[in-house]
Automatic annotation (TrEMBL), chain A:
One of its GO terms (cellular component) is transcription factor TFIIH holo complex. Component of the 7-subunit TFIIH core complex composed of XPB/SSL2, XPD/RAD3, SSL1, TFB1, TFB2, TFB4 and TFB5, which is active in NER. The core complex associates with the 3-subunit CTD-kinase module TFIIK composed of CCL1, KIN28 and TFB3 to form the 10-subunit holoenzyme (holo-TFIIH) active in transcription. Belongs to the TFB4 family. This is General transcription and DNA repair factor IIH subunit TFB4. It comes from Hanseniaspora guilliermondii. Component of the general transcription and DNA repair factor IIH (TFIIH) core complex, which is involved in general and transcription-coupled nucleotide excision repair (NER) of damaged DNA and, when complexed to TFIIK, in RNA transcription by RNA polymerase II. In NER, TFIIH acts by opening DNA around the lesion to allow the excision of the damaged oligonucleotide and its replacement by a new DNA fragment. In transcription, TFIIH has an essential role in transcription initiation.
TrEMBL record, chain B:
Residues 1-92 are annotated as: Disordered. It holds the Pfam family Ssl1. The keyword DNA damage applies. GO terms for molecular function: ubiquitin protein ligase activity; zinc ion binding. It comes from Hanseniaspora guilliermondii. This is General transcription and DNA repair factor IIH. Component of the general transcription and DNA repair factor IIH (TFIIH) core complex, which is involved in general and transcription-coupled nucleotide excision repair (NER) of damaged DNA and, when complexed to TFIIK, in RNA transcription by RNA polymerase II.
Length: 385, 485
C-alpha cells in the first residue's frame, strides 16, 4: 500500500492526452473552470485492489482538466473513515517533503498537483485501517459542504470562472455506514450549489460481487437532477477513464467554453448575405449538443414517518413538516414535534380517511379502474387495426 | 463644469467653518484677558478718583454684560453644532453632513486609523448577525403574504435612487424571488395604493413568475406615482384576498409605505380590529419618518410587539428591512396546529404530448395528481381540479433550516493565539484560506483573530465561510464530516 501509484506511467499517459488536445481544444483559453473532485473514500477503502486503478484514472482526469487551459483549477477532497473531510489539494503539508523527481517532459502544474495529491493520499491510507465493526455515519455531505465553501471563495477571487463538482463514490461492504441522516445536509448542499450555479456530477462505481439490487444512491441522484448534472453508474473499474473523459470531461469543456458566441460568429460568417434574424436559430446550451446519459427515474418519493412506506397522498404537520401517510385513530399530537393538533380539522381528516377506506373496501376504486380500462380499450382500436 | 465648481465651493465653505470657530474661540480668550485688565484698571482707578468711580463701575458692568452676552452666544453656537453632530450620528441620510471621498482620504496615520474603524465596522456587522436568535421556534412555514406598495405622489421623490417607487419595485422583485426560494409552499399577492384606491397588481398565488411579470410590467410602463395613499383601503383589500386562505396558513401583510398621511373612507381602527380578529399580521416598512398610525397597526396586529414597524434610514437599510420579512414568523400562542393533506406526485415523461390542467399547454413531461389524476406541469401548485396541494419532498426540505437553525459560531478570543493554544498561521477549515493577522498599527497588538469556531466540532472558519454557512448553506462542514455517531 506504500506506493499506490507509480508516477511515471501517469505522466507518459498525460503527455499523450496533451498532444491529443493541443491541436483542437486549446482554442478557448479565456473561459476557465474550477473542478471540485470529491472522492468518497469511506466507501472505497474496502475494495483495496481497485483503489489504485480508480485513483490512476482520476489523476489522469485531473491532468486532462488542467491541460485543457492554463487557468483551469482543481480542488480535490477526500472523506475518509478517521479524520472526516480532508483536502488533498490544496493542502497545508510542507512541499519540501516531496520527493525530487524531475523529468523534462513533465508539465510543472501536473507534477505539483499530482504529487501533493498522492503524498497526502498515501498518508491517509497508511493511517487508516478500515473497521467493519463500528457504526459510522456517512460524511459525504461534509465534503460537499467544504467543496461549496471552496467554490464560493474561488468564485469571489476570480472573474468568469465556472465551477463544477464531481463526486466519485462507491459501494461499501460495510453495512454499518448510516446514510439516512444525510438527507437534510445533502439537500442544503443542493440548494447552495443551485445558488452558486455549480452543477453536481456523480460517478458511482458498483461492485458487482456484492450483488445489491438497490444500488442507486437516491440522495446524490436528486442532487444531480436538481443541479442539472450527470448521474452515472459504472460496473467496471478498468475502463473508467473512458467514462471520465467522455461523459464528465467533455461536459466541463463545453460548459466552460463560450459555445454560444462561437456559434454566433460562425453563423454570422455563413449567413452574411441573409437576414440577421436567422441568428435566433442557435444552439443555446450544451444540452442541445451533448446527449447526456439520462437519469430515467429520479427517486423523489417521500416516505411516511410512522410506517416508512412511500406516500402519494399524505398529511403534513404545519409546524415540523413531518409527513404521515395515515392518521391513527388515537392521534392527538404530532408524532415528531409533539404539538397538539386542532381537534376540528383532525376530525375532518379522519372522516375523509374513513371514507377512503370504506370506498376501497367496497371495491369502488376497482370498479372505477375497470371503467377506465374499458374506456381505454374502446379508445385504442386505431392502434390495433 | 458648473457642477464641479459648485461642489468645490461647497467644500470650501465646509472647510471655512472650523476657521470661524477658531476665531470665535480666540475672541473668548481675548475677552477673558480684557476682563482681567479691566478689573486691574478698575482697582487702580478706584484709588485715584472717587467721583468717577460709580460711573466707571457702571461702564465696566455694562462692558462685562456685553461680553457675557457674547460668550453665551458663542456657547449656544457650539451647542447647536454639537447637537447637529449627534443628529448626524443618529443615522438618517438627510441629517448627515455631505461626505466626499476626497475629504475622507487622509494622511497615512489617518488611513491606519480608518483601517481599524473599518475592521470594527465589519466586526460590528457580524456581531449583529450573531445576535440573531438561533433557538428553534415553532414557525408558520406555510405562509400567505400580501405585499402592499404605496404608489402615491410622495413615492415620486428622489431621496431613494432612482426614485422611491422604482427603488421599492426593484427591491420587491428581488424579495419575491428570495421569498419563494426560502418558502416554496407559500403564496404571495401584490396590491398597489394610488389615487386613494387600492388595486390588485397580481392575485394571491404560489408562482413567483406571475408576480415578477406584473411588477416588471409596472416598471416598464413607467407608471407615475400619483394621488394619495389610503391605508384602510389597502388593508381591507388585503383582508379580502386573505379571506379564503385556510386556517393552517399564517396570514401576513407587508406594507411598504412612503406617505406620511392616509386618506381613508372610514375609521381605520375598525379595520385594524377586524384584522386582529382574523389573525392577519401586518408589518410596515416606512420610507420617510415614523407615523403613529402605522406603529399602532403593527402593535395591535402583532400581539403588542412593535418590532414589526420599521422606518428605513437609507436604501440599503430598506433592503435589509425587507429581507427580514423572508424568515417565517414565529407562531402566536394559541395558534392552531393542524395536519394538512398534501399530494406527492411522481414525475412522468409521456411519449405523446398532452395538455396540462394548469396552463392548458401541450407538453410531454409533468406530474399527475395522485388524487384526481389531472396533469400539472410545475410544482408546487394547488391541483386545479381537486384543490389538493401538490408538492415535492424537496420543497419541504427547503424550509427545514427555518425549523432547525444552525448554531452561531463564536469568535476565537485573541488570548488563545497569545497563549499558543491556536497556531498563529492557520487556514480556514472549509475553504483553506489563510486567516489574516490583523494588527493595530501603533500598538502592534492583534485586533481580531478573524476565526469563528463552531461550538460542536471545534473547527475554525473564516469570516466569509461563516457568512456563507449561516446565510446559505445551513450545514456546518465540520460537524457533517464527523465520522462517529
Amino acid at each position: 500500500m506504500d506506493n499506490i501509484i507509480d508516477n511515471r506511467n501517469i505522466y507518459s499517459l498525460n503527455s499523450d492526452i496533451n498532444t491529443l488536445n493541443n491541436d483542437k481544444l486549446l482554442l478557448h483559453d479565456d473561459n476557465s473552470s474550477l473542478l471540485i473532485l470529491i472522492i468518497d473514500l469511506q466507501n472505497f477503502l474496502l475494495f483495496e485492489s481497485d483503489i489504485s486503478k480508480i485513483l490512476k484514472n482520476v489523476i489522469i482526469f485531473i491532468n486532462a482538466h488542467l491541460a485543457y487551459s492554463s487557468s483551469n483549477k482543481v480542488c480535490c477532497i477526500v472523506n475518509d473513515e478517521k479524520e472526516g473531510t480532508q483536502f488533498l489539494y490544496p493542502n497545508d503539508d510542507d512541499i519540501s517533503e516531496q520527493k525530487e523527481y524531475m523529468n523534462e517532459d513533465t508539465y510543472q502544474e501536473f507534477k505539483k498537483i499530482d504529487e501533493s495529491i498522492l503524498n497526502k493520499l498515501n498518508k491517509i491510507i497508511k493511517n487508516n485501517k478500515p473497521s467493519l465493526l463500528t457504526r459510522q455515519r456517512s460524511n459525504i455531505a461534509g465534503s460537499m459542504s467544504c467543496g461549496l465553501t471552496y467554490i464560493h471563495r474561488v468564485l469571489k477571487e476570480s472573474i468568469s470562472l465556472k465551477a463544477r463538482m464531481l463526486v466519485i463514490t462507491g459501494e461499501s461492504k460495510n453495512s454499518n455506514i448510516v446514510q439516512s441522516h444525510q438527507y437534510i445536509p445533502i439537500m442544503n448542499c443542493i440548494f447552495t450549489s443551485q445558488k452558486l450555479k455549480c452543477p453536481i456530477d456523480v460517478l458511482k462505481i458498483n461492485d458487482t460481487n456484492l450483488g445489491n439490487k438497490e444500488t442507486s444512491n437516491s440522495f446524490l441522484q436528486q442532487a444531480t437532477d436538481a443541479t442539472n448534472g450527470i448521474y452515472l453508474e459504472v460496473n467496471e473499474v478498468n475502463g473508467m477513464i473512458q467514462y471520465l473523459t467522455t461523459v464528465f470531461y467533455l461536459n466541463t469543456i463545453i460548459t466552460s467554453t463560450s459555445i454560444d458566441t462561437n456559434l454566433k460568429i460562425n453563423n454570422s460568417l455563413d449567413n452574411l448575405d441573409k437576414d440577421v434574424e436567422d441568428t435566433d436559430v442557435l444552439v443555446k446550451t450544451h444540452d442541445d449538443i451533448l446527449v447526456k446519459p439520462s437519469t430515467t427515474q429520479v427517486d423523489f418519493r417521500t416516505s411516511c414517518f410512522l410506517t416508512g412506506k412511500i406516500v402519494a397522498v399524505g398529511f403534513v404537520c404545519n409546524v415540523c413538516l413531518v409527513v404521515i401517510s395515515y392518521i391513527p385513530s388515537s392521534l392527538k399530537d404530532c408524532p415528531c414535534c409533539g404539538s397538539t393538533f386542532d381537534v376540528k380539522s383532525l376530525k375532518k381528516l379522519k372522516y375523509w380517511q374513513m371514507q377512503q377506506n370504506s370506498n376501497k373496501k367496497k371495491g369502488f376504486i376497482k370498479r372505477a379502474n375497470k371503467i377506465n380500462q374499458s374506456q381505454g380499450n374502446q379508445g385504442s382500436p386505431d392502434k390495433t387495426y | 463644469m458648473s457642477n464641479a465648481m459648485s461642489s468645490d465651493e461647497e467644500s470650501i465653505v465646509i472647510r471655512k467653518k472650523p476657521k470661524q470657530e477658531i476665531t470665535e474661540d480666540d475672541e473668548i480668550i481675548n475677552t477673558n484677558t480684557r476682563k482681567r485688565n479691566l478689573s486691574q484698571l478698575s482697582e487702580a482707578e478706584v484709588s485715584d478718583e472717587d467721583e468717577d468711580l460709580e460711573l466707571k463701575k457702571k461702564k465696566i458692568q455694562a462692558q462685562e454684560e456685553q461680553e457675557r452676552m457674547k460668550e453665551e452666544a458663542s456657547k449656544k453656537k457650539e451647542e447647536d453644532e454639537k447637537n447637529k453632530k449627534s443628529q448626524a450620528q443618529s443615522g438618517y441620510a438627510w441629517e448627515d453632513k455631505i461626505q466626499r471621498p476626497w475629504d475622507i482620504v487622509g494622511t497615512e496615520d489617518n488611513e491606519a486609523l480608518q483601517d481599524q474603524q473599518l475592521l470594527n465596522k465589519i466586526i460590528n456587522i457580524r456581531d449583529k448577525k450573531e445576535a440573531v436568535n438561533t433557538t428553534a421556534l415553532q414557525r408558520g412555514i406555510i405562509r400567505s403574504m400580501i405585499i402592499i406598495i404605496d404608489v402615491s405622489q410622495t413615492m415620486g421623490e428622489k431621496d431613494y435612487r432612482p426614485n422611491r417607487f422604482q427603488n421599492v419595485l426593484n427591491n420587491t422583485i428581488f424579495f419575491i424571488e428570495e421569498f419563494f426560494n426560502m418558502n416554496p409552499i407559500s403564496q404571495i399577492g401584490v396590491v398597489s395604493l394610488k389615487d386613494g384606491l387600492a388595486r390588485v397588481v397580481s392575485p394571491l398565488s404560489g408562482s413567483p413568475k406571475s408576480h415578477i411579470d406584473a411588477l416588471m410590467k409596472m416598471k416598464h410602463e413607467r407608471i407615475e406615482p400619483r394621488g394619495f395613499a389610503s391605508l384602510q383601503n389597502g388593508l381591507e383589500l388585503a383582508r379580502g384576498m386573505l379571506m379564503d386562505v385556510s386556517a393552517h396558513c399564517t396570514k401576513e401583510v407587508v406594507l411598504l409605505y412612503g406617505s406620511l398621511s392616509s386618506t381613508d373612507p372610514g375609521n381605520i381602527m375598525d379595520t385594524v380590529n377586524v384584522l386582529k380578529e382574523q389573525e392577519i399580521r401586518v408589518a410596515i416598512i416606512g420610507l420617510v419618518a415614523q407615523v403613529n398610525v402605522c406603529e399602532k397597526i403593527c402593535k395591535i396586529t402583532n400581539m403588542s410587539d412593535s418590532s414589526y414597524y420599521n422606518v428605513a434610514m437609507n436604501e440599503q437599510h430598506f433592503a435589509e428591512l425587507l429581507m427580514e420579512r423572508i424568515k417565517p414568523l414565529p407562531l402566536a400562542e394559541g395558534s392552531e396546529f393542524a395536519l394538512i393533506k398534501m399530494g406527492f406526485p411522481t414525475r412522468i415523461i409521456d411519449s405523446t404530448p398532452s395538455f396540462c390542467s394548469c396552463h392548458s399547454k401541450l407538453n410531454r413531461g409533468g406530474y399527475y395528481c395522485p388524487a384526481c389524476n389531472s396533469k400539472v406541469c410545475n410544482l408546487p401548485i394547488q391541483c386545479p381540479s381537486c384543490e389538493l396541494m401538490l408538492i415535492l419532498s424537496t420543497h419541504l426540505a427547503r424550509s427545514y433550516h427555518h425549523l432547525v437553525p444552525l448554531k452561531n459560531f463564536h469568535e476565537v478570543p485573541n488570548s488563545e493565539i497569545e497563549k499558543g493554544k491556536v497556531p498563529k498561521y492557520a487556514n480556514c477549515y472549509s475553504c483553506k484560506r489563510e486567516f489574516p493577522l490583523l494588527k493595530g498599527v501603533n500598538s502592534n497588538k492583534l485586533l481580531s483573530t478573524m476565526r469563528y469556531r463552531c461550538d460542536d466540532c471545534k473547527k475554525d472558519f473564516c469570516m466569509e465561510c461563516d457568512d456563507l454557512i449561516h446565510t446559505l448553506l445551513h450545514n456546518c462542514p465540520g460537524c457533517e464530516s464527523k465520522v462517529n455517531l
